[in-house]
Write a structure and sequence with these properties.
Helices cover 59% and strands 8% of the residues. The protein is α+β, with helices and mostly antiparallel strands. A hairpin with a 5-residue loop joins strand 9 and strand 10. The longest helix is centred in the first third of the chain and has 65 residues. It starts with 21 loop residues before the first strand and ends in a 25-residue tail after the last helix. 28% of the residues are buried. Belongs to the V-ATPase 116 kDa subunit family.
Length: 820
């Protein structure tokens, strides 16, 4: 797996097994070139700065004012982005390299544009409010005018009717009636009225409150407006009614005004005279036309301004984010005593040293600094960060491992083998080459369109699937492979590689066991013989096969985990871990479950009828008992006794010697040492990473012993439970196969048997949806999670500590994708 990343550019060939060698570096930079230096290091993206001002609050740091300034510019840019999204203007993509623009010019320009845009918005809001008020006024004039016109027509008709009655009456009655109808002008009541609009949902309550407040001394008429109108105050569309309220007296008027205000009813003036009404309608219509033209011109101007902002938005946004990141990083550097230099410390890969030095020199030249920057490597016993160089294929597998825990510095990386073992164990549970082809087609769409999809915003689930597209690709390829081994294509067997090795004795063969089959040809060359499918012995045969295969795969992967612990011990030069951890663990696991795996293979090769359950159980309960018909090879009893003895010996071997040896090593290392010898300062970083190095800390023997006791018990019990846990491979494979068979037989074949075209179409649709929904989505997720558990718990706990922290360099690479 070496050299996965390639050796192009500044980066050497990488080795995924071990993280990159890291060094703690110190950079002393003159104040005048500090900004440019940090900018060039951000472009390089290979230095993780340490915060040397952790004791200071954000407001006490050197560049707090500059960060506040950048924050204000970022606020203006967010305001522009919000305005552009409302107007439907999208900012243009900034594809070019970073153009050298001055931050002061950007700040002035943003201020001017914000002031101009705010003024346009304020004017537009005022004009829109006036327009909405005039629209409501026009509706009042129309509806109230109709009411007054109808009332006038009704009154004229009544008056003419009364006059016609008076002409036909007797002369004697005429003076008497005239006297009755004569009224004192001083006692006439003057009626007033108010017009306006009230929200429709409040209209009934509004009318009821008015009636109660004036004790019924009002007359109100309402008219429904069919279309929604925009409220001038809120700017939102609402359904309203036009009302006209008649009252008598100023006291009643004041009550009505207060109620209108409480209900949010907008009032508008109205004249009784028809001529004035027509004049007002003409004026309102003219003003509405003028306002509409003015608002349209204002919106066009606003859109042009937003498009101008959109042309430069991404460039300004990137510049502001970049400057803010630079000043945040500068705040992590400390001032020296002369206050003329900034001192920074951070982690970087060893291979990056020449590139960092070039960046420092270039920054000093470009900033016209009289003094160059100083770069030096520091010695430390602090644990460095973990840095694996990955590409688009290995990144998703590395993230699966990192989700459990980031590898300790230069610890063996499980990702190297996970790239193969993870999709393979998934495929063991998902084996069906028809389903594998479906997964492959879906994944190839993501892989072939990755350039286009990577620049788009996808949903949460789609984003997750796209990020793990190469994991799913490997899973689909291995599923096709295991599906060919199981000989299942949507649960249907096919004799792809050769005809079946067996033939039936008679017609009832499919209902019989394998006794009804005669072997007439050579053994089927690859995978399961298709003749097994559909027979009564299919389930017992496949159960036995998959269960034993699960144990073999589990023991093999656990052995790989223990071998990885040996690689770690050898790399960190820990002989204690080799002799008192790796060796007894290998002996214990293989004397029990390695022996079981050997028995399975022997039974397959010899065709023996021995009961392996009986062999393993009585190996512990009655080790001296004669095996009888369960004996698979000569001297098996002696071998079993030897393995049992070695397994029992390996438990105290793991438990007792290591704590005492560590105590002795600690005493020998610090015996009679009052002062430590001074070491050379020009050497690179030397970090004590093995578990036995504790420096001058107090050695707690009881703590070490309890830790070793827990570790031993965990391994001994885990050897049994972890082997049993691998049986999930058998269980999920069986479940997937049976579900697929049920969907095929009980849905598709049953629909076919009705000889009805409509039922067949329905059956095919149900089969497709069941296959996609249950087998290709739910079963995929289930097998994925189980494969994840087998790697995190059963495999990685044999060697992987995962207590490191990831290398997080200061870089501008992902700056454009980050949210503010």
């Amino acid at each position: 797996m070496a050299e996965i990343g390639g050796g192009g550019g500044c980066c050497p060939p990488m080795d995924l097994m071990r993280s990159e060698p890291m060094q703690l570096v110190q950079v002393i930079v003159p104040m005048e070139s500090a900004h440019l230096t940090v900018s060039y290091l951000g472009d390089l993206g290979l230095v993780q700065f340490k915060d040397l001002n952790s004791d200071k609050s954000p407001f006490q740091r050197t560049y707090a004012a500059q960060i506040k300034r950048c924050g204000e510019m970022a606020r203006k840019l967010r305001f522009f982005k919000d305005q552009m999204s409302k107007a439907g203007v999208s900012p243009k993509e900034f594809l070019g390299k970073d153009v050298d623009i001055d931050l002061d010019d950007v700040e002035v320009k943003l201020g001017e544009l914000e002031a101009e845009l705010s003024e346009i918005n304020a004017n537009n809001d005022k004009l829109q409010r006036s327009y909405n008020e005039l629209m409501e006024y026009k509706l009042v004039l129309e509806k109230a005018g109709e009411f007054f016109a109808s009332a006038h027509r009704s009154a004229t008709a009544q008056q003419s009717e009364i006059e016609s009655q008076q002409v036909g009456e007797d002369a004697l009655e005429a003076p008497l009636l005239q006297e009755e109808k004569s009224v004192d002008p001083t006692k006439q009541v003057k009626l007033g009225f108010l017009t306006g609009l009230v929200p429709r949902e409040k209209s009934m309550v509004f009318e009821r409150i008015l009636f109660r407040a004036t004790r019924g001394n009002i007359f109100i008429r309402q008219s429904v407006i069919e279309e929604s109108v925009v409220d001038p105050n809120s700017g939102e569309k609402a359904e309203k009614n036009v009302f006209v309220v008649f009252y008598s007296g100023e006291r009643a008027k004041s009550k009505i005004l207060k109620i209108c205000e409480a209900f949010g009813a907008n009032r508008y003036p109205f004249s009784e005279e028809l001529s004035k009404q027509a004049q007002m309608m003409t004026e309102v219509t003219g003003r509405l036309a003028e306002l509409k033209t003015t608002i349209s011109a204002g919106l066009d101007h606003r859109k042009i301004l937003l498009e101008t902002i959109g042309d430069k938005f991404e460039q300004w946004n990137l510049k502001v984010r970049k400057e803010k990141a630079i000043y945040h990083t500068l705040n992590m550097l400390s001032l020296d005593v002369t206050k003329k230099c900034l001192v920074g410390e951070g982690w970087s890969p060893v291979f990056a040293t020449p590139e960092i030095q070039k960046a420092l020199q270039r920054a000093a030249v470009d900033s016209n600094s009289q003094v160059g920057s100083i770069f030096q490597v520091l010695r430390t016993k602090e644990m460095p960060p973990t840095f694996f160089r990955t590409n688009k294929f290995t990144t998703a597998f590395q993230e699966i491992v990192d989700a459990y825990g980031v590898a300790k510095y230069q610890e063996a990386n499980p990702t190297v083998f996970t790239i193969v073992t993870f999709p393979f164990l998934f495929a063991v549970m998902f084996g069906d080459w028809g389903h594998g082809i479906c997964l492959l087609i879906a994944t190839m769409y993501l892989v072939l369109r990755e350039k286009k999809l990577s620049s788009q915003k996808l949903g949460d689930i789609m984003e997750m699937a796209f990020g793990g597209r190469y994991v799913i690709l490997m899973m689909s390829l291995f599923s096709i492979y295991t599906g060919l081994i199981y000989n299942e294509f949507f649960s249907i067997p096919f004799p792809l590689f050769a005809p079946s090795a067996y033939e039936c004795r008679d017609a009832s063969c499919s209902e019989a066991t394998t006794i009804g089959l005669i072997k007439t040809r050579d053994t089927y060359p690859f995978g399961v013989d298709p003749v097994w499918h559909g027979t009564r012995s299919e389930l017992p045969f496949l159960n036995s096969l998959k269960m034993k295969m699960s144990i073999l795969l589990g023991v093999a992967q656990m052995n790989l985990g223990i071998i990885m612990s040996f690689c770690n011990a050898k790399f960190f030069k820990s002989a204690v871990n080799i002799w008192f951890q790796f060796v007894p663990q290998m002996i214990f696991l293989n004397c029990l479950f390695g022996y079981l795996s050997a028995l399975i293979i022997i039974k397959w090769c010899t065709g023996s009828q021995a009961d392996l359950y009986h062999v393993m159980i009585y190996m512990f309960l009655s080790p001296m008992e004669d095996l009888g018909e369960n004996q698979l090879f000569p001297h098996q009893k002696t071998v079993q006794l030897t393995f049992l003895f070695l397994a029992l010996i390996s438990v105290p071997w793991m438990l007792l010697p290591k704590p005492f040896i560590l105590k002795k090593q600690h005493e020998a290392r610090h015996q009679g040492q009052s002062y430590a010898q001074l070491e050379e300062t020009d050497e690179s970083l030397q970090v004590e990473t093995n578990g036995g190095a504790h420096g001058h800390e107090e050695f707690e023997f009881s703590e070490i012993f309890v830790h070793q006791l827990i570790h031993t018990i965990e391994f001994v019990l885990g050897a049994v439970s972890n082997t049993a846990s691998y049986l999930r491979l058998w269980a999920l494979s069986l479940a997937h196969s049976e579900l697929s068979s049920v969907f095929y037989e009980k849905v598709l074949l049953m629909a076919w048997g009705f000889n009805n075209f409509l039922i067949l179409i329905v059956g095919i649709l149900v089969f497709i949806f069941a296959t996609v929904g249950v087998l290709l989505v739910m079963e995929t997720l289930s097998a994925f999670l189980h494969a994840l558990r087998l790697h995190w718990v059963e495999y990685q706990n044999k060697f992987y500590e995962g207590d490191g922290y990831k290398f997080a360099p200061f870089t501008f690479t992902l700056l454009g994708n980050e949210d503010e």
